[in-house]
Amino acid sequence: MEPNSYANSRITRIASHLNPPNLKMNEHGGSSLTNVHCRAKGGSPGFKVAILGAAGGIGQPLSMLMKINPLVSVLHLYDVVNTPGVTSDISHMDTSAVVRGFLGQNQLEDALTGMDLVIIPAGVPRKPGMTRDDLFNINAGIVKTLCEAIAKQCPKAIVNLISNPVNSTVPIAAEVFKRAGTYDPKRLLGVTMLDVVRANTFVAEVMGLDPRDVDVPVVGGHAGITILPLLSQVKPPSSFTPKEIEYLTDRIQNGGTEVVEAKAGAGSATLSMAYAAVKFADACLRALKGEADIVQCAYVDSQVTELPFFASKVRLGRNGVEEFLPLGPLSDYERASLEKAKKELATSVEKGVSFIRK
Ligand SMILES: NC(=O)C1=CN([C@@H]2O[C@H](COP(=O)(O)OP(=O)(O)OC[C@H]3O[C@@H](n4cnc5c(N)ncnc54)[C@H](O)[C@@H]3O)[C@@H](O)[C@H]2O)C=CC1
Ligand SMILES: O=C([O-])CC(=O)C(=O)O
């Protein structure tokens, strides 16, 4: 059998619930029940979510966690490798989302048709000694191709972009959507949630608090000095010594590198990233459903600074970003750090934009 027809036959069988797996057993089994005989009830209400890069280090745990989310009714898993296995595995979880797998570029458009939310962790990760920008040459092209298909198949979907370098891939996505005439700045969000998750964890450690009670806004971008934790705005209100500020800022800015080095060539953060991506996607879905007052940090096309893209707090709503919230009062230390971050961010944005315009 051709690899693709194998994949296709698996994929038609691995759509669960609405189209339950073919239960027909081999000659040694007693059952002759096929999917035609299963008493499917029809779909549960909820959102349709696609994960692009679903078979990867982030993609697999992210897909598993999205299958648990009760707001998801349909989950499409797309990758260029291994989706039949991942989809079959996840489809056996007894939660209501219907899971379907899509393999290779000729199934990309089907994977995206009618989606409400598209999460993108596709692309190569760092190895020790690399910067996120070193991933640009490979990941820029991957993000471009995926976004061209999104523009065609689900132009109104909310897009959560994880692939690095986020500071440049989000401008790439925006340019692709602009070219296609589908760009809506409210619907394109670069995922910087892992910076917030790390900041909450590290601040809680220093302050002796439960991380669930801590909220640290992290603004700017998602690479090195562009990651700006606003420790002056931590909730609950906390004061830090200059030494604590230095330690926390450095640890939050270099959290990704800490994991890359610990993994010693086996990739970058995957499990904490899947957790962060699910936290962010869940916030987007709750807002789409109409839940009020959902505020998260994300890297977006914004008016908060003179830069075209900047991570800051946004209020989410039924159409994606409902409001770009101001930065609020900054300490002298944060103001100085912001100026340094802006220079690097401007270069990364320009690199992304010119990749499409050139
Ligand atoms: N925004 C953030 O905070 C974070 C971003 N990342 C980034 O996420 C990306 C993925 O990281 P991992 O999952 O660890 O990498 P991985 O290599 O384990 O998985 C990437 C997956 O993307 C797939 N892929 C490659 N080309 C594709 C294409 N054209 N279409 C669809 N899928 C494709 C691969 O087959 C693979 O399954 C990296 O760029 C990494 O730097 C990682 C951690 C945090
Ligand atoms: O550091 C990396 O390459 C992956 C990443 O973005 C993070 O963990 O924050």
UniProtKB/TrEMBL annotation:
Pfam families: Ldh_1_C, Ldh_1_N. GO terms for biological process: glyoxylate cycle; malate metabolic process; tricarboxylic acid cycle. It is found in: Peroxisome. Substrate binds at R126, R132, N164, R198. Its EC number is 1.1.1.37. The keyword Metal-binding does not apply. PROSITE patterns: MDH. GO terms for cellular component: cytoplasm; peroxisome. The active site is at H222 (proton acceptor). It catalyses: (S)-malate + NAD(+) = oxaloacetate + NADH + H(+). Residues 48-190 form the Lactate/malate dehydrogenase N-terminal domain. Keywords: Glyoxylate bypass, NAD, Oxidoreductase, Peroxisome, Transit peptide, Tricarboxylic acid cycle. One of its GO terms (molecular function) is L-malate dehydrogenase (NAD+) activity. InterPro entries: L-lactate/malate_DH, Lactate/malate_DH_C, Lactate/malate_DH_N, Lactate_DH/Glyco_Ohase_4_C, Malate_DH_AS, Malate_DH_type1, NAD(P)-bd_dom_sf. Residues 192-355 form the Lactate/malate dehydrogenase C-terminal domain. Its main location: other. NAD(+) binds at G53, A54, A55, G56, G57, I58, G59, D79, N139, I162, S163, N164, M273. PANTHER family: MALATE AND LACTATE DEHYDROGENASE, MALATE DEHYDROGENASE 1, PEROXISOMAL. Homodimer. Belongs to the LDH/MDH superfamily. MDH type 1 family. This is Malate dehydrogenase. It comes from Medicago truncatula (Barrel medic). The lineage of its organism: Eukaryota, Viridiplantae, Streptophyta, Embryophyta, Tracheophyta.
